[in-house]
Recover the amino acids of this structure.
């Protein structure tokens, strides 16, 4: 996603009326793509920033589509659209969030914007890792005196402090369970399956 | 490097036998922060971490302990005899992937994750425990993660870093207290340094030639930086 292009929202929804209503709500601010079944959706997913995935689809089910998206390791966040309140189950199923049917314009936008923000957060964490890993390597290779005299090391420290402050502002979003587990899923690549108790 | 999958045998004394041990500095770390206890293998870091959890529990806080190496019964030993267990649970996220054969007391609530490498699963276990705790977390919540070294045996350093970043971030945002352990001699120095960078407070443990252990804490008041004997 570049700065100027609107984010791409892929809607996988088998009922044309419903898909069209989402497009009407979102079309002005997002680049909306529509697929009316799971197979078609998977062909478009590589370009998407956010996917709104209907749980009940003919053919491949929503959960199967999600599984395939995760298998492909696409950098995308997926919200399930469902008629029933799925509660915590949705997180364990591997979705990043959910929207209850029928969603209002505001709910839909809030969910999409929240997921886009999470994508940025995850990119920021990766940048932060690169900086800290470089600092960690320098500290392992050089003496304290050498570090003290290294302008590159001080510059690195300065950048780390700035990143740290920026990321700390995002911490509040982690108090939400879906955002917390979603961030872990995207950043640690784990399935998050098989938790009992 | 430590051997994968082999739990180190550590000489331990249980809480009841010796009473409060450790270092008052570890009990003075403020809520909303994360403490990393780092030092060579087998220097009692895990006991220091459990000690902090037990102290917090006795003071009325809730406890969630993530276990990657020890069976839940190790935690039972530490919390046996606490009056708090009469009224509230100690929560454990067991990601050892091993079956427990020994009986678990009713005050120990265990979630199981299939492997220490399933970092998302650990997060789900923590979220579930915290949902069970609910509003009571406002009275204080201690989260113990023991140990990062086991996670590093199952997941690459970047993934473990990301996990630690997200987890410490949630602990900071919620005003909880995180207590983590890491073996300094079991990984590349660069990996240890990188992970240390995520912590406001770092407690370093070292063992002297005479076998006595010493501890200092970085990140707090300057007087905490002095090495002091532990035993």
């Amino acid at each position: 996603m570049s700065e100027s292009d609107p984010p791409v929202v892929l809607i996988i929804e088998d009922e044309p009326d419903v898909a069209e209503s989402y497009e009407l709500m979102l079309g002005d601010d997002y680049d909306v793509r529509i697929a009316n079944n799971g197979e078609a959706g998977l062909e478009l997913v590589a370009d998407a920033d956010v996917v709104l995935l209907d749980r009940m689809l003919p053919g491949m089910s929503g959960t199967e589509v999600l599984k395939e998206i995760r298998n492909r390791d696409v950098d995308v966040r997926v919200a399930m659209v469902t008629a029933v309140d799925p509660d915590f189950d949705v997180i364990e199923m591997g979705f990043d969030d959910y929207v209850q049917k029928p969603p209002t314009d505001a709910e839909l936008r809030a969910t999409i914007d929240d997921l886009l923000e999470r994508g940025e957060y995850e990119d920021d964490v990766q940048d932060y890792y690169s900086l800290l890993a470089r600092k960690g390597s320098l500290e392992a290779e050089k003496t304290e005196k050498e570090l003290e005299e290294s302008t590159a090391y001080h510059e690195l420290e300065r950048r780390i402090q700035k990143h740290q402050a920026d990321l700390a502002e995002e911490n509040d979003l982690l108090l939400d369970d879906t955002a917390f587990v979603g961030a872990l899923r995207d950043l640690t690549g784990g399935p998050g399956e098989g938790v009992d108790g | 490097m430590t051997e994968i999958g082999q739990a180190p045998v550590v000489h331990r004394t249980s809480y009841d036998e010796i009473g409060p041990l450790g270092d008052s500095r570890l009990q003075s770390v403020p809520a909303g922060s994360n403490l990393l206890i780092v030092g060579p293998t087998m220097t009692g870091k895990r006991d220091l971490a459990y000690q902090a959890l037990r102290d917090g529990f006795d003071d009325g806080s809730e406890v969630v302990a993530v276990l990657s190496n020890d069976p839940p019964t190790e935690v039972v030993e530490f919390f046996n005899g606490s009056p708090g267990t009469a009224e509230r649970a100690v929560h454990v996220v067991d990601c050892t992937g091993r079956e427990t054969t020994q009986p678990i007391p009713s005050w120990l609530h265990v979630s199981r994750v299939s492997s220490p490498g399933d970092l998302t699963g650990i997060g789900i276990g923590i979220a579930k425990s915290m949902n069970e705790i609910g509003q009571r977390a406002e009275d204080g919540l201690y989260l113990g993660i023991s140990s990062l070294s086991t996670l590093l045996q199952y997941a690459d350093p970047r993934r473990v870093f990301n996990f630690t970043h997200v987890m410490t971030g949630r602990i900071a945002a919620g005003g909880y207290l995180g207590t983590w352990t890491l073996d300094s001699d079991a990984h590349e120095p660069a990996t240890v340094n990188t992970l240390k960078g995520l912590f406001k407070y770092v407690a370093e443990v070292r063992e002297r030639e005479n076998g006595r252990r010493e501890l200092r804490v970085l990140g707090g008041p300057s007087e905490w930086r002095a090495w002091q004997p532990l035993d």
